[in-house]
């Protein structure tokens, strides 16, 4: 019998926990690979609670339940999750350990799925609850799966070859570098569970996870250059078999846990951020000496080679034309007042598909009107969808997955009234221009080799700080090459608060977003996002190596929201140069009304 209500599902889970003789269970948004986006089969938190955000977790005991989300989802969780079933808890202020101590007691056994949590996560939680007599117990199988009657099966989509002319390097060369790394670190093998790392290393892609072109699989790479790929056999086509060659053996994904027991007496590396407890347990049970080290593909993957850099430029040109056509359509259509957020998002995806080669969106489009734009990670659906009112700010954050590259762009635009008389407020123009000034600071920055993202983040915020305001998200994240739209290890963000990646040195070849913003709760939000490529700077007389950024994203900025008087002469020149470049790249792809729109929006300030 299928359970249609979240109350019935919670009751069924509690009955299953009682049957297993445990007192509680932790439910994350996660899969066996610690992916950002997970397949439908792994959407256990959504099934149990109704929460549709991309980050958060729940804790369920025999008599209590809570859902933990960060500040991005404070509004969303209240819209989607029944407070009579789940208490709302905000992280990092509220801790899971403290909640467990408060709602269980000495001798309590709290289960967790060892394939959905890292060793580091479990250790940290045990340090808090262990002294209070609460034991963390790895479940032999996930109790949600036992009661989820219509749980989807994992995707059976075939893997595909990512050609060398797009990857820029053959897989054999990458595997040889991994072998050298293993030898240098006195290791026999490395377990690679992260799906994008597997895809990058073997030059394959897939369609198993929304927004990220990866195939559900694992790799174990050996110091002799061999690799074992664990993947469902039906996913392997003759083309993939030929591409992988003799040095990559293909084994059923179901054999992965068994394979972990084949390293008795061997030294094996696992990434602490992606290696779940189940992997460590399997290695330990088999007698392996396992160590935690960063996945050796992560930094190599982040530093794009010339072919990947050019692919990104090509993808951005195509994407820029699609987004420009959308903004032209929006400017003509929205003032009538008959366009809503979902319609706009669908129209934008349609323009991207018309320009060809789009394989997927790179994330759920943030199509946000009025107060919704003040939610940086807003996700529109049938329940939250609202009309885009004339005389208001509209924010659209979107991206596409193309074989040549992954795009991510945010534009904030003014929606005029039908008679053309509506004007943004002085406050709106002030905030938009301060965001733009910060964006320009990052774009034009020149910095010495050795600089990290935490050291430059304040430059994007300084003009907002002058006005006594700020934004709560990072300024920039890494982006993959036809892979994850959020890719580490680099990041531009405040160095405090444990922000991952802010201490990572920036290297030439890294792609980052440049996306400062401002959000006025309940009223409007502003964000300007382009992608940039880290490049070497040729400076006469330079004492050392210096880097800067090459702009990759080319779509007009909304001139209506710019307060020209707040810009310096140099900043005005930057805007004009940027729009000249937009025109040069995008105009050849447009015609008619779209071309006329582009011409108007790229004229000098």
Automatic annotation (TrEMBL):
Residues 313-534 form the Peptidase M24 domain. GO terms for molecular function: aminopeptidase activity. The keyword Protease applies. Keywords: Aminopeptidase, Hydrolase, Metal-binding, Protease. Belongs to the peptidase M24B family. This is Aminopeptidase P family protein. It comes from the Bacteria. Residues 546-605 form the Peptidase M24 C-terminal domain. Residues 9-140 form the Creatinase N-terminal domain. InterPro entries: Creatinase_N, Pept_M24, Pept_M24B, Peptidase_M24_C, X-Pro_aminopeptidase_P. The keyword Transport does not apply. CDD domains: APP.
């Amino acid at each position: 019998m299928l359970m249609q209500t979240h109350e019935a599902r919670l009751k069924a889970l509690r009955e299953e926990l009682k049957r297993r003789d445990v007192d509680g269970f932790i439910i994350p948004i996660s899969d066996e690979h610690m992916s950002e986006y997970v397949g439908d089969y792994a959407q256990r938190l959504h099934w149990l609670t109704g929460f549709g955000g991309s980050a958060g977790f729940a804790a369920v005991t025999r008599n209590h339940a809570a859902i933990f989300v960060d500040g991005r989802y404070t509004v969303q969780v209240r819209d989607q999750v029944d407070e009579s079933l789940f208490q709302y808890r905000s992280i990092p202020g509220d801790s899971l350990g403290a909640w467990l101590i408060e709602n269980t007691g000495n001798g309590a056994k709290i289960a967790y799925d060892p394939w959905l949590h890292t060793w580091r996560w479990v250790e940290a939680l045990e340090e808090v609850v262990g002294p209070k007599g609460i034991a963390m117990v790895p479940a032999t199988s996930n109790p949600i799966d036992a009661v989820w009657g219509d749980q989807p099966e994992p995707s059976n989509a075939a893997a595909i070859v990512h050609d060398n002319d797009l990857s820029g390097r053959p897989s054999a060369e990458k595997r040889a570098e991994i072998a050298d790394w293993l030898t240098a670190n006195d290791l026999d093998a490395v377990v690679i569970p992260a799906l994008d790392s597997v895809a990058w290393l073997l030059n394959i892609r897939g369609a198993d996870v929304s927004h990220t072109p990866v195939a559900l699989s694992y790799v174990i790479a050996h110091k002799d250059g061999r690799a074992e790929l664990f993947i469902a056999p039906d996913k392997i086509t003759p083309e993939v078999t030929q591409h992988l060659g003799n040095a990559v053996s293909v084994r059923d994904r179901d054999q992965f846990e068994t394979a972990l027991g084949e390293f008795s007496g061997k030294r094996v590396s696992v990434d602490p951020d992606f290696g779940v407890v189940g992997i460590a347990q399997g290695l330990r049970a088999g007698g392996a000496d396992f160590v935690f080290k960063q996945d050796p593909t992560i930094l190599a993957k982040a530093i794009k080679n010339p072919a990947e850099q050019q692919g990104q430029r090509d993808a951005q040109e195509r994407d820029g034309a699609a987004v420009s056509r959308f903004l032209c359509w929006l400017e003509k259509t929205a003032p009538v007042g008959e366009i809503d957020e979902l319609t706009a998002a669908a129209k934008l995806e349609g323009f991207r598909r018309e320009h060809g080669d789009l394989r997927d969106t790179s994330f759920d489009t943030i199509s946000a009107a009025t107060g919704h734009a003040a939610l940086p990670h807003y996700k529109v659906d049938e329940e939250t969808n609202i009309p885009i009112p004339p005389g208001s700010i509209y924010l659209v954050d979107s991206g596409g997955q193309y074989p040549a590259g992954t795009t991510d762009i945010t534009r904030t635009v003014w929606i005029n009234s039908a008679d053309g008389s509506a004007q943004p407020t002085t406050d709106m123009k002030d905030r938009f221009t301060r965001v733009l000034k910060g964006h320009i600071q990052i774009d034009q920055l020149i910095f010495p080799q050795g600089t990290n993202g935490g050291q430059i983040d304040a430059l994007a915020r300084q003009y907002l700080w002058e006005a006594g305001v700020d934004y709560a998200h990072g300024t920039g994240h890494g982006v993959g090459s036809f892979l994850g739209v959020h890719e580490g290890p680099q990041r531009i963000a405040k160095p405090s608060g444990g922000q991952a990646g802010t201490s990572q040195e920036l290297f030439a070849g890294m792609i980052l977003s440049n996306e400062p913003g401002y959000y006025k709760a309940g009223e409007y939000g502003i964000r300007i996002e382009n992608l940039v490529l880290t490049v070497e700077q040729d400076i006469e007389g330079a004492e050392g190596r210096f880097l800067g950024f090459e702009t990759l994203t080319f779509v007009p900025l909304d001139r209506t929201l710019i307060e020209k008087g707040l810009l310096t002469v140099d900043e005005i020149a930057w805007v004009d140069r940027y729009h000249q470049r937009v025109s040069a790249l995008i105009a050849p792809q447009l015609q008619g009304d779209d071309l006329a729109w582009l011409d108007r929006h790229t004229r000098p300030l």
